[in-house]
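Fold this sequence, please.
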Amino acid sequence: MSASTSSKPRIHFLSPLRIVMFLTVVWNHAEAFARERTADDPLAQLLFSLLPEGRFLFVTITACLIARSASSSSTVKRLFVIAWPFLVWSAVYAGVEIAANGSGPGGVGGIVVSILTGSAAPHLYFVFVTIQLTLLAPLIQFLARLGRRTQVVLVVVAAVGQFAVVGFGLVIAPIQFPLGRLCIAYPFWVIGGVALAANLEVATTWFRAHVVHLTVGLGAFAAAYIGIATSVDDPRSFGNDLLLSELRFVWNVLFGLAAVAMCMQLVASTGRWSSMAKRAGERMQDLGYGLFLAHELLLYGVAAVLAPVSGPVPFAVLTPVFFVGAVIATLGFVLVVRRTPLSWSLTGRPMQRRVTRVPALVSG
């Protein structure tokens, strides 16, 4: 996410995987925007619930890069490069909230807290998770040096822990505790990223050999999930909600495996699509932090532009409209900002007249 160097070779499949991650994150937020602005559509919401949650790919990629990092930059420097744009954008989102709804009951103190904690915008949690994982880099790199059998045990334990986290999240949902802001909420995804980094050659061979199997398995599981979800009498009861949430966790795991496999297969080829994916992924590495920070603001912009007509538009149509509009608007905005003096504060990158690949905080 920020500048540094690494002596280890690039992990090329991460280039297109970053694009998949960004698109899924924007879709998740576009869906939430559409849900607030149109009538309920249970069937569309059920189908859209099968779309993956991009935050899990984000955590896995971050852990993988930290595990393989040979950066000489100090932790303080890395944290500053991450934290400064975060604080700037927190202030921007706090300003948007004040303009829309006033300062709220907390007054100035509440505004300051929202800026420092990133609660002014729901998507800023990913910076907190990044900071936590950066601080835990020595532990993550230690786990990456463990033997393969030990890592297999860790992955299994982490998977069991992730099932427990999903259930715990439902139990504490009424008190609205921000569990997703803590890296301990993602044990499987962190350990999975570590294991992937530590066994990259073996994993690459396995994934490339099982692209078709993983894709077919993903489709079969999707059909089974829809069948189960449509057969339960009360999907909002705790037991059924727990069942569907655990199944969605499995779905996200399968999607992550299939996405990694397809990206590995793509970059291993020598055709035009492979070259395009690598170039686009390198551009994504340069723009990525700014894109993640800015896209929520651009979603507000797209929603404001479409407000006069969005009410009658069905949820199933409004969501992809918001998604496409936000992706195009965010890309355009960040590309422009990268060429201005605001680039450092808004994207964590120095201003450039021509956007080129810059080594990431933890290169991959």
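Confidence is low (pLDDT under 50) at residues 1-7, 358-364. DSSP finds 15 helices and no strands in the chain.
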